[in-house]
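Hi, here's the filled form for the chain we discussed.

Project: internal
Contact: R.S.
Residues: 147
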Amino acid sequence: MARAEVTYTIYQNLAQIPPFDPGLDNETPPEAVKELRSSINQANAIIICTPEYAFGVPGQLKNALDWLVSSSTLVDKPVSLITASSVGNNAHAALLLTLGALSANVIEEATLLIPFIRAKMDAEGNITDTPTSEGLENAFTNLLAVL
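And the returned structure, exactly as it came back:
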């Protein structure tokens, strides 16, 4: 859905980030953590799109965010939060709290909770629900507007 002039990267290395350990969070953190922080520093904005697992934030995502606490990587960084799940309320609320603790600039108009996502997609993962498509388009437009 991104416009042609928008360059984006989908972060693929959550599984490479070790469990958070404050003893390792120093000037030489693990390589995967340095790479995550560098990727975020280079970005103009961040989109976090996640499901909800067991009524909470997926563990690997929470772990990655924990590694960002001491680095100030997300301070004032524009962030769009999209939670797409069966319900998603708990993960969405928890992530908003975590992002607040990280001083991220969560753009309210670019934040979206999409409950019952499976009923709104086809077998290939395309959004088939018009209000959901419009909500995503609005979220992206509103995120780009702050850049």
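Let me know if anything looks off before we file it.
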